[in-house]
């Protein structure tokens, strides 16, 4: 990381300036050019952020959206994934929090409301796809907006926030996604009581024996736009079971689908190990609009086992699920790959 002298004789990383504004907003554009079923990353250093009035999180959605539309000043360059503290350090607003007792000069940060924003464009060739905006991790509580429309609210650091934005995306104009972060909740530090913990948030940020108090807030994990066909894969769950002699592994692959209309689909399941095909399954099924499960069984002979550390290797199998919509001339609607290991754990009295 490049660094230059900062305040109080410490260093801070270099930071790029925000680009000229579009309709009053810092205009940092991520243009996507690919065609087909896509997972589009919205990560990067082309976000902007600012400190917002503390009462903002208490306002209704329309007031917040109007405030975002008319807010032109005070934006700084930001990076996602990241944290407010790190972005403030990059911008020179706080000294290096990892130097001496500088964390004391940043304890005001989690007491404020913050807003992050990004402008991005998508190639119109994707028009007609189903779109989901996925936030893998936001710390801690936030409200989400796309193109001036409220998407919803989410609370929890370690569970994702996902929104269907199919009807909200602009295909021939820039899109603006905004995240309004609430002040961090009050929580227990190391000397607190676990019985009093009420939030799903990292506790050590509130002070621990090996680190100072630095309560982080921000978009700490990936932001992704998923574009799929009419049938989307919501989840893939592999549930294996080893035989008593450990020479066979049988189980099921449960694929949860979400369809926008009734249709006939072909679900293909491929299981691989180190790039080599282990088995494949193919099932044709009619699905209704909404969610439905497709369950396919499998059996693996002479499975490669996952051994504890020091006793052997930990091979991972890959299960790739592909969904083909028959009404779309056999076009792949969505696909998902998950990894899994084969082991058996028993409690011996």
Structure report:
5% of the residues lie in helices and 45% in strands. The chain has 349 residues and is mainly beta. It folds into two domains: 3-226, Jelly Rolls (Sandwich), CATH 2.60.120; 230-340, Sandwich (Immunoglobulin-like). The chain starts with a strand and ends in a 9-residue tail after the last strand. Residues 1-36 have low confidence and may be disordered.
How would you sum up the global shape? globular
**Whole-number radius of gyration?**
24 Å
The CATH homologous superfamily of the largest domain is called: Galactose-binding domain-like
- Low-confidence segments, ≥5 residues, pLDDT <50? 1-36
- Total number of β-strand segments? 22
Q: Could you tell me the mean pLDDT?
A: 84
CATH class of the largest domain: Mainly Beta
Count the DSSP helices.
2
Helix-and-strand structural type: mainly beta
Quickly give the CATH architecture of the largest domain: Sandwich
Number of domains: 2
How much of the polypeptide forms β-strand, as a percent range? 35-45%
Multimeric status of the protein: single chain
Q: What share of the residues lie within helices?
A: under 10%
Our measurement of the CA-to-CA distance between the termini, rounded to an integer number of angstroms, reads 52 Å
* Major β-sheet annotation: 7 strands, mixed
**Helix/strand order, N-terminal first:** EEEEEEEHEHEEEEEEEEEEEEEE
- CATH fold description of the largest domain: Jelly Rolls
């Amino acid at each position: 990381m490049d660094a230059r002298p900062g305040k109080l004789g410490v260093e801070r990383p270099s930071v790029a300036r925000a680009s000229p504004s579009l309709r009053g907003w810092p205009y940092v554009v991520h243009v996507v050019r690919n065609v087909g079923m896509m997972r589009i990353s919205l990560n990067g250093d082309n976000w902007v952020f600012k400190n917002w009035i503390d009462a903002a999180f208490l306002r209704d959605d329309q007031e917040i959206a109007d405030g975002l539309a008319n807010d032109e000043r005070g934006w700084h360059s930001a990076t996602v994934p990241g944290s407010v503290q790190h972005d403030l350090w990059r911008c020179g607003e706080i000294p290096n929090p990892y130097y001496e007792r500088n964390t004391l000069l940043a304890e005001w940060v989690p007491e404020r409301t913050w807003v992050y924003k990004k402008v991005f464009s998508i190639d119109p060739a994707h028009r007609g796809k189903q779109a989901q905006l996925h936030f893998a991790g936001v710390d801690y509580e936030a409200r989400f907006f796309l193109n001036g429309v409220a998407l919803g609210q989410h609370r929890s650091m370690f569970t994702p926030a996902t929104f269907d934005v199919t009807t909200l995306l602009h295909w021939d104009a820039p899109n603006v996604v905004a995240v309004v972060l609430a002040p961090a909740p009050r929580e227990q530090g190391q000397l607190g009581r676990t019985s009093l913990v009420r939030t799903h948030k990292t506790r050590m940020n509130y002070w621990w024996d090996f680190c100072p108090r630095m309560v982080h807030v921000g978009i700490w994990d990936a932001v992704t736009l998923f574009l799929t066909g009419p049938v989307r894969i919501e989840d893939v769950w592999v549930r294996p079971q080893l035989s008593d002699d450990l020479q066979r592994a049988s189980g099921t692959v449960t694929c949860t689908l979400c369809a926008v209309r009734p249709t006939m689909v072909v679900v293909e399941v491929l299981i691989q190990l180190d790039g080599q095909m282990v088995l494949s399954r193919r099932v044709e099924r009619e699905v209704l609009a909404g969610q439905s499960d497709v369950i396919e069984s499998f059996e693996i002979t002479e499975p490669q086992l996952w051994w504890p550390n020091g006793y052997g290797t930990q091979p991972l199998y890959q299960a790739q699920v592909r969904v083909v919509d028959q009404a779309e001339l056999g076009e792949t609607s969505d696909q998902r790959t998950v990894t899994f290991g084969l082991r058996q754990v028993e409690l011996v009295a």
